[in-house]
Design a protein that fits this description.
A alpha/beta (406); B mainly alpha (289); C mainly alpha (342); A: 406 residues; globular; B: 289 residues; mainly alpha
Chain lengths: 406, 289, 342
C-alpha cells in the first residue's frame, strides 16, 4: 500500500518535472527575460567629475529605444535600466546589486570605468551574471579562465600603446620620449603599455613623465616641464579637455615633438578644433572607428544612418563627439548578441554567443576591423589603424594593425 | 633658465584664473561673512548664459554686458530666495545650503548643455608674446583681473555703499541702528560677487574650455589663494591666487613629481598660514569678551 | 551665536524633569535596537546591504559631529580620514592576512594618531582657514594613495576577500556583516555618549561656545581641541575600515572631495550636535541620491541639492536637532499638564 503510493507519487513527480522541463526548453529564459521583454542593466557616471562619459549610457538608451520602435529583438523589447554611480566604486557596487537583485536584470551591459568594474568584478562572477562589454580599455578584463562572465569590447589601451611603441622603434629608433598621462588606471595603462612595447629600451628612451588629475584646471605646467626634458617624442594619454589644452600648449611654446595622441582624446570636434586646427598638424593617433567629422565617410549610408539616429534622438549637439560613435557601436554589438541567442535566453548562452563572434562587422568601425572572440579570447576588437592629422581631419595611413596587448 | 621663466609665467597665467574667482569669494565673504562653495558653479553657469548668447549671433561685448547684468540680478535673487530664509541659522547650515546650490547649478548646466566640452570665443586674438612665454589670452586674464581688483578696492575703500556693506557684514545690528539697509547690502554683495564670477568665467573659458566641470577644480585653488592672501582682502585674493599658481608649477617641476604637487603646495601654504593665521594681507579678528 | 540647544535639552531632560523622560528615552532606544535586530530577516539581501552602508556612514558622521558639532571645529576633510581607515584595514587584510575583525583596532589607532597630529596645527586656525587645512587632507589623500602604490595598489586599488560568516550562526554574508556593523555602531554610540555627556563633552561645548570664558575657567583648550580631533577621526576611521570590509574593494576614486562634503551634509541634516542625528544623516547620504536618481536620471544631483535645501529650510538645526528639543518640550508640557491636573 505504502509502496504503491510512493510509486504513484514518484511517477507524478517525474511527469511534472518533464512537463516543466518541456516548458523551459521551448524558450529557455534566465532572470529578467520574458516572452516580450529582455531587461538589461548598466552603470554610468551621470554626475561628478567623470560625467562627460555619461553620454555613453544615453546613446545606448536611445539606440535600444530605436530598436524597440522597430519591433525589438526576436519579438522582445529591450528594457534598458541605467543607474548613476558617479564613478565611485562603492556606489557602483550598490547600483550593480540593485540591478541584479532588485531589478532582476538579465545581464550588466557596458558598465563604465576601471575602478567601478573592478569593484563588481568578483560579485558578477560569483553570482554568474554577465558583465558584458565593459566600457574600459584596461587589459585585465580579458581573462576568461578566471573570470568567465566578464568580457571587454574596446581594443585595450595596451594594444594601442604597443602600436605606438612599434612605430617608434621602427621609425624613430633614437627617440627621447616624454609621456603626459592622466593619473588613474586609464592613463597608467598607456604608460605601462608603452614601456612594455619598448621592452628593454624603455628605460633609456622614456626620459620624462608627467601626470595630471582630472581636477587640475590646466596642464600647462606638465607640458612645459616635459619640453624642458629635451624629449623629441611626446605621448599624450588624456581625455578630450586636457588633450585639447595639451595640443594647444605644445604649439604655443614652440615645441615640435612627434606627438602621439591617444584614441580617447583625438576627436576633431572636441579636441583638435578647440585647440586650434592648425596647431595639431602632424599629430599621430590610432583608431578603430570612423571619426564623425572625417569627410571621407560623410556620404556613406552608414554615416547617414548614424547621423539620422543622432538627430532624431536629441543628440544634435553631439554629432562631432566620437563617444557617440562608440556608444552606438557598443549598443549594436549587444543587440546582435541578443539576436544570436534566439529564444535560448539564458545567461550561459549569452556568454557563449558573445564568445563566438567571428568577423562581425559594425557600420561605424573602420573597414577591415571586425569583432572576433573565442573561448580563450574575450577582447573582441584588437585592431587599430594609425592616422595623422592634416589640419582638417585625420588621414588614415598604413595597414590595419593587429595588436596583442600586454 | 628658460624652463624656469616658462614655469613662472605659466604659473602667473594659471594664478590669474584662480585670482579672478578668488575675488568673487572675497566679495561674498566681506559682504556676508560666508564662504560660498557654489561660487565656481555660478560662474560656470553665467558663462553658459554668455555662450548661449554668443551662439545666438550676438556680438561678444553685447553678450558680455547682458550676462553680467543677468548674473548680478541672479545673484541678488539667490540671496533673497535661497539664503535669506536661513540667515540666522548656524554656519554649517549655510555651508550645506551653498553645497546644495553647487550641486543644483552643476547638474542643471549638465542637463541643459550636456557634458560635452565647448569652445568659447575670446575677445583677444590668439598670439604668443614675450617669445612664447605667454599668450595674449593669458595676459588678458591678468589684465581683467587687475582691473576688477582696482574696482573692488576702490569700491570698498572710497564709496559709501562699500562702507555700508562692510558695516553690515561685521555688525548687522549696529549697522541697522545707523540706518544701513542690511538686507539690501547682503543682496548687493551676492549680486556683485555673481557678476565678478561671470567675468571670471568668461575670461577663463577660452583658456580652460567650457564644460559643466570647468570651475570645479578652480574653486579649490581660488579658495586656497583667497585664504592665503587673507579672505577679507581683495588685494590678498589676487596676490594669493598668483602665488598659488606659481608655487604649484615650481613645486611640480622642481620639487616633487606632478602626482604630489597639489599636496605639497597645500602643505607649504599651510605652513605660511601657521605664521600668518589670517593670511598675508588679512586683518586679525578681534573678539570682544 | 552657536548651537547649545540640543545639548542643553538633554541635560535638562536628565536633570530637571526627573526619571520620567529618561524612561521614555530608554524605551525609544530599546525599540529602535529591537527593530534593527529583527529587520534583516524581513527584507532582501540588497536592502540589508543598504542598511549596513547607512550604519557605516552613521559612524563616520558621528565622528564629524564630535568635532564640528560639539567642539565647533569645521572639517572638510573627513573623507580623507575615512580613506585612511579603509586603507589601513585593506593593507592589513591584503598584505598581512589579518582577519577582518582585527583590523578595526589598528584603523582606530592610526586615525586617532592622524587626528591628533592634525589637531595641533589646527589650533592656529578658525573658520574658513580651518576649513582649508582640513580640505587639504581630503585633497591630499587620493594623491598620496596613488603615489605610494607599492603599499596601496595605486590607481588599481586593492581587492579584498569577503569575510565568511561563522557557520554556527546560519547567517549569510550580508546579514552577518549587518550585525557586525550594528554591534560596532552600538559600541560607538555608547562611547560617544559617555564622552560627550561627561566632563570632556562639557569642555568641548564650553570651548565651542565661549572659548575665552572656558580658558579663563581653567579648561586646557589646546588639549581638548586636539582631543576632539583625535576622537573624531577615530570614529570616522573605524567607519572607513568597515566600509573596506563590506564593499570588498578600495581605490582612490572611492574617496573624493565629494565624500567629505557628503559627511558634512549628513551631519547638518541629521543635527550637528547630536548623536542620533548621525543615524539620520547616514540615511540621508545613502538613500537620497538613489531617490534623486529615480526622480530624474537627467540631473540626479539637482534633486539631491534641492533635497538638501529643503531640509535646511524646514529644519535649520537638522532633523534631530530640531525635533529633539521640540519633542522634549512637548513631553515636558504633557507632564506638567498632568501634574497640574492631579
Amino acid at each position: 500500500m505504502r509502496a504503491k503510493q510512493t510509486v504513484v507519487t514518484g511517477v507524478c513527480m517525474a511527469g511534472l518535472m518533464l512537463a516543466v522541463n518541456a516548458v523551459y526548453a521551448a524558450g529557455q529564459y534566465g532572470p529578467g527575460v520574458t516572452d516580450t521583454e529582455i531587461k538589461i542593466g548598466n552603470t554610468n557616471p551621470y554626475s561628478g567629475s567623470a560625467s562627460s562619459y555619461g553620454i555613453n549610457g544615453k546613446v545606448h538608451a536611445a539606440y535600444f529605444a530605436m530598436i524597440n520602435e522597430k519591433g525589438g529583438i526576436n519579438g522582445r523589447k529591450i528594457n534598458y535600466i541605467t543607474r548613476d554611480d558617479s564613478y565611485s566604486p562603492p556606489k557602483t557596487v550598490e547600483q550593480a546589486r540593485q540591478l541584479v537583485e532588485q531589478d532582476k536584470v538579465f545581464l550588466l551591459f557596458a558598465p563604465l570605468g576601471t575602478p567601478p568594474n573592478m569593484a563588481i568584478h568578483d560579485y558578477m562572477n560569483e553570482n554568474k551574471v554577465p558583465q558584458l562589454f565593459v566600457a574600459t580599455g584596461a587589459d585585465q578584463w580579458n581573462d576568461p579562465k578566471h573570470f568567465p562572465w566578464t568580457m571587454m569590447w574596446l581594443p585595450s589601451y595596451g594594444i594601442e600603446s604597443h602600436i605606438y611603441a612599434n612605430y617608434i622603434l621602427k621609425n624613430l629608433p633614437n627617440a627621447k620620449i616624454a609621456v603626459l598621462y592622466q593619473n588613474d588606471d586609464y592613463g597608467k595603462d598607456y604608460l605601462n603599455g608603452l614601456r612594455a612595447g619598448l621592452g628593454d629600451k624603455a628605460a633609456k628612451m622614456i626620459v620624462a613623465t608627467q601626470s595630471y588629475e582630472t581636477t587640475d584646471p590646466t596642464v600647462d605646467q606638465q607640458v612645459v616641464a616635459l619640453q624642458g626634458s629635451g624629449a623629441d617624442v611626446l605621448l599624450t594619454a588624456a581625455i578630450p579637455k586636457f588633450a585639447a589644452q595639451t595640443v594647444r600648449k605644445v604649439y604655443d611654446i614652440g615645441w615640435k615633438p612627434t606627438h602621439f595622441l591617444n584614441s580617447v582624446g583625438n576627436s576633431v570636434g572636441l579636441v583638435m578644433k578647440p585647440a586650434g586646427l592648425e596647431k595639431g598638424v602632424g599629430i599621430i593617433s590610432a583608431t578603430y572607428h570612423k571619426d564623425p567629422t572625417d569627410p571621407q565617410w560623410q556620404n556613406t549610408p552608414e554615416y547617414k544612418e548614424w547621423l539620422a539616429f543622432m538627430n532624431s534622438h536629441g543628440f544634435s549637439g553631439n554629432i562631432t563627439d566620437s563617444q557617440a560613435v562608440i556608444g552606438y557601436s557598443y549598443a549594436q554589438t549587444m543587440a546582435e548578441v541578443l539576436r544570436m541567442c534566439g529564444d535560448n535566453l539564458t545567461r550561459e548562452n549569452v556568454m557563449k554567443q558573445a564568445a563566438s563572434l567571428h568577423n562581425l562587422q559594425l557600420p561605424m568601425l573602420l573597414p577591415g576591423i571586425t569583432l572576433n572572440t573565442s573561448a580563450d579570447d574575450f577582447d573582441p576588437i584588437k585592431q587599430m589603424q594609425l592616422e595623422k592629422f592634416d589640419g582638417t581631419t585625420w588621414q588614415l595611413f598604413g595597414d590595419v594593425i593587429s595588436g596583442s596587448g600586454t | 633658465m628658460h624652463q624656469l621663466l616658462q614655469q613662472i609665467f605659466s604659473g602667473l597665467a594659471a594664478g590669474a584664473v584662480y585670482a579672478s574667482l578668488a575675488l568673487a569669494l572675497v566679495m561674498i565673504y566681506r559682504a556676508t561673512d560666508l564662504v560660498n562653495f557654489a561660487q565656481g558653479e555660478m560662474a560656470m553657469f553665467s558663462t553658459y548664459i554668455a555662450w548661449t548668447l554668443v551662439n545666438a549671433e550676438l556680438p561678444f561685448w553685447a553678450a558680455f554686458v547682458i550676462t553680467l547684468a543677468v548674473s548680478f540680478v541672479g545673484g541678488m535673487l539667490i540671496e533673497r530666495i535661497v539664503i535669506r530664509p536661513v540667515e540666522n541659522a548656524p554656519i554649517l547650515t549655510m555651508v550645506v545650503v551653498t553645497i546644495g546650490l553647487l550641486l543644483i547649478f552643476n547638474a542643471t548646466a549638465g542637463w541643459l548643455y550636456s557634458y560635452t566640452l565647448q569652445e568659447f570665443p575670446s575677445p583677444f586674438p590668439d598670439r604668443t608674446l614675450f617669445g612664447a612665454l605667454m599668450t595674449t589670452r593669458d595676459v588678458g586674464v591678468i589684465a581683467v583681473t587687475l582691473v576688477m581688483l582696482v574696482a573692488l578696492f576702490c569700491f570698498f575703500r572710497f564709496t559709501a555703499t562699500g562702507l555700508a556693506m562692510r558695516a553690515a557684514a561685521q555688525n548687522p545690528e549696529s549697522a541697522r541702528l545707523c540706518g544701513v539697509r542690511v538686507g539690501r547690502m547682503l543682496a548687493l554683495g551676492w549680486g556683485f560677487a555673481a557678476a565678478i564670477g561671470a567675468v571670471a568665467g568668461i575670461m577663463v573659458a577660452p583658456v580652460l574650455f567650457l564644460d559643466p566641470n570647468m570651475m570645479s577644480g578652480v574653486l579649490l585653488y581660488a579658495f586656497t589663494g583667497a585664504l592665503l592672501g587673507g579672505i577679507t582682502s581683495p588685494v590678498g585674493a589676487v596676490v594669493g591666487g598668483l602665488i598659488v599658481g606659481v608655487t604649484e608649477n615650481l613645486v611640480g617641476t622642481y620639487l616633487i613629481a606632478s602626482q604630489l604637487k597639489l599636496t605639497v603646495a597645500l602643505i607649504l601654504i599651510i605652513i605660511v598660514l601657521v605664521f600668518r593665521p589670517n593670511g598675508l594681507f588679512g586683518t586679525a579678528l578681534v573678539r570682544r569678551v | 551665536m552657536a548651537e547649545t540647544v540640543s545639548v542643553d535639552s538633554t541635560v535638562a531632560m536628565r536633570r530637571g524633569s526627573g526619571t520620567g523622560i529618561a524612561v521614555w528615552r530608554w524605551a525609544g532606544i530599546a525599540a529602535l535596537i529591537a527593530v534593527a535586530v529583527v529587520l534583516p530577516s524581513t527584507i532582501s539581501n540588497y536592502h540589508v546591504f543598504e542598511l549596513t552602508q547607512v550604519m557605516i556612514y552613521a559612524i563616520a558622521v558621528l565622528g564629524l559631529n564630535i568635532l564640528t558639532g560639539y567642539n565647533g571645529q569645521i572639517s572638510l576633510g573627513h573623507g580623507g580620514f575615512f580613506a585612511a581607515g579603509a586603507y589601513t584595514a585593506a593593507v592589513l587584510m591584503h598584505r598581512y592576512g589579518v582577519p577582518y575583525w582585527a583590523t578595526l583596532l589598528p584603523a582606530a589607532l592610526v586615525c586617532f594618531a592622524l587626528g591628533m597630529l592634525f589637531g595641533v596645527p589646527a589650533l592656529r586656525f578658525e573658520g574658513p582657514y580651518l576649513a582649508l587645512v582640513t580640505l587639504a587632507m581630503a585633497v591630499a589623500m587620493p594623491q598620496l594613495l596613488k603615489y605610494f602604490d607599492t603599499w596601496t595598489g595605486g590607481q588599481q586599488g586593492i581587492r579584498l576577500a569577503k569575510p565568511m560568516p561563522p557557520p554556527e550562526l546560519g547567517l549569510d554574508r550580508d546579514r552577518w556583516l549587518y550585525f557586525f556593523v550594528l554591534v560596532v555602531l552600538l559600541v560607538a554610540i555608547r562611547v560617544a555618549a559617555n564622552l560627550l555627556n561627561g566632563r570632556t563633552g562639557r569642555a568641548f561645548v564650553a570651548i565651542r561656545d565661549h572659548p575665552i570664558a572656558a580658558a579663563a575657567m581653567g579648561i586646557n583648550t589646546a588639549r581638548y581641541k586636539t582631543l576632539a580631533f583625535g576622537a573624531s577621526t577615530l570614529f570616522t576611521g573605524v567607519a572607513g575600515a568597515l566600509a573596506a570590509i563590506v564593499i570588498g574593494f578600495v581605490a582612490p576614486e572611492s574617496f573624493t572631495l565629494f565624500l567629505s562634503l557628503s559627511f558634512l551634509v549628513g551631519s547638518a541634516v541629521g543635527g550637528i550636535a547630536t548623536i542620533g542625528g548621525a543615524i539620520v544623516g547616514g540615511f540621508f547620504i545613502e538613500f537620497v541620491p538613489n531617490v534623486a536618481n529615480d526622480i530624474s536620471d537627467a540631473a540626479p544631483w539637482a534633486i539631491y541639492g534641492l533635497a538638501m535645501l529643503l531640509v535646511m529650510y524646514v529644519m535649520p538645526r537638522g532633523v534631530v536637532g530640531t525635533a529633539g528639543p521640540w519633542l522634549a518640550h512637548a513631553i515636558q508640557q504633557l507632564r506638567s499638564a498632568r501634574r497640574a491636573a492631579k
